């Protein structure tokens, strides 16, 4: 029964009292934790607006390559082997010095991680890497531009160093972070693996009478703290275009259908390279699929994180300002307003009236 979809479970529950009780307990488990035990914290769902259930999708804390959505149990009590206890703190940074720290202190990395860094998802027609880039590979724990990424509390340094907690930094440019990865000799506890432990704060999914589903902070989130990554299926441009056409058709007939297709373009400092990251969280994803748009940039800073030795970048979010308990988590979907079909309800002074839209 934990594998049944909601409608099938409801039908089964109507057949006898025993199954009705089991179905009710499974529904309660689902509402108590949309992440199904796969995150550090349970993610409850609240809906006092209507009786419409949240969209069906397979939960995954991390992005996967395009595939048939895995069949995950709903409300299963079994926990994955890597699961840490509820309310547990993230693994504290290791006291051991990361081998990358030594490498970062002056010399250029000798390992093949430097090569891997420069091979990230470049489009086929991208120009070759410049001589300067070959000589100055990105280093673990740094921004692509070269500055140190994190402070002693594992908060994004360029955000946390401002003394004013409510001062927002502009988010029109994605920051690029290099973290330790498969090419490094350090453990998962390394202080340069901040974005690699799934959801790092308590959140809840809440139905809003205007916006639909939204994501709220259930605890205080300090400025610069890592929040979560945007997980989903990683698509090629052709796959994304095909799905977009399908989703456009489905939206015409299903009012509640809410696709979550994210396209990220990033221009590297050289100016010659443009990365294109397409993540579809419609069928497989995590809590980030519930984050709504805000025309003023919202309270989340989107960043691109790259793991040394991994060819696939990640879209991750940090707090742009101190975020209070109960605040809605938002970020800017972009500033392309070519198709004004979906009204925006962000209610900020910068609101343009419509949600951004970009052709895949
Ligand atoms: Zn490391
Ligand atoms: Zn490293
Ligand atoms: Zn708006």
Automatic annotation (TrEMBL):
Residue ranges of every copy of the SET domain listed in the record: 199-334
Subcellular location: Chromosome
Keywords: Chromosome, Metal-binding, Methyltransferase, S-adenosyl-L-methionine, Transferase, Zinc
GO cellular component: chromosome
GO process annotations (BP): methylation
Record-linked Pfam families: SET
Principal location: nucleus
SUPFAM superfamilies registered for this protein in UniProt: SET domain (SSF82199)
Transmembrane regions listed in the UniProt entry: none
Keyword Transit peptide: no
UniProt-listed PANTHER family: HISTONE-LYSINE N-METHYLTRANSFERASE SET-23, HISTONE-LYSINE N-METHYLTRANSFERASE SUV39H
Name of this chain's protein: Histone-lysine N-methyltransferase SUVR3
């Amino acid at each position: 029964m934990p594998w049944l979809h909601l409608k099938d479970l409801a039908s089964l529950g109507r057949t006898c009292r025993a199954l009705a009780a089991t179905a009710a307990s499974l529904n309660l488990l689902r509402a108590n934790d949309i992440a199904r035990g796969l995150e550090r914290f349970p993610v409850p769902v609240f809906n006092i607006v209507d009786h419409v259930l949240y969209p069906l999708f397979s939960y995954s804390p991390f992005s996967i390559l395009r595939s048939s959505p895995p069949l995950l149990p709903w409300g299963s009590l079994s926990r994955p082997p890597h699961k840490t206890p509820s309310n547990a703190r993230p693994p504290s940074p290791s006291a051991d010095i990361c081998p990358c720290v030594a490498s970062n202190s002056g010399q250029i990395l000798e390992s093949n991680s430097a090569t891997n860094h420069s091979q990230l998802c470049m489009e086929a027609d991208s120009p070759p890497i410049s001589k300067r880039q070959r000589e100055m590979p990105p280093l673990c724990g740094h921004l692509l531009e070269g500055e140190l990424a994190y402070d002693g509390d594992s908060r994004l340094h360029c955000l946390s160093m401002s003394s004013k907690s409510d001062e927002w930094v502009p988010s029109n440019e994605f920051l690029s972070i290099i973290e330790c990865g498969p090419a490094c000799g350090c453990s998962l506890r390394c202080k340069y693996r901040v974005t690699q432990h799934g959801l790092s704060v308590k959140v809840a999914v809440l139905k809003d009478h205007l916006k639909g589903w939204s994501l709220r902070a259930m605890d205080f989130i300090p400025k610069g703290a890592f929040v979560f990554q945007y997980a989903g299926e990683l698509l090629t441009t052709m796959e994304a275009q095909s799905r977009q056409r399908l989703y456009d058709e489905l939206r015409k007939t299903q009012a509640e259908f809410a696709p979550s297709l994210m396209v990220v373009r990033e221009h590297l400092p050289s100016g010659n390279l443009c990365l294109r990251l397409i993540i579809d969280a419609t069928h497989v994803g995590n809590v980030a699929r519930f984050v709504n748009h805000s025309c003023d940039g919202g309270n989340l800073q989107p960043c691109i994180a790259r793991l040394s030795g991994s060819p696939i970048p990640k879209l991750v979010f940090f707090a742009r300002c101190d975020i209070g308990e109960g605040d809605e988590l938002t970020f800017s979907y972009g500033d392309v307003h070519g198709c004004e079909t979906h009204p925006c309800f962000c209610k900020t002074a910068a609101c343009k009236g419509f949600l951004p839209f970009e052709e895949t």
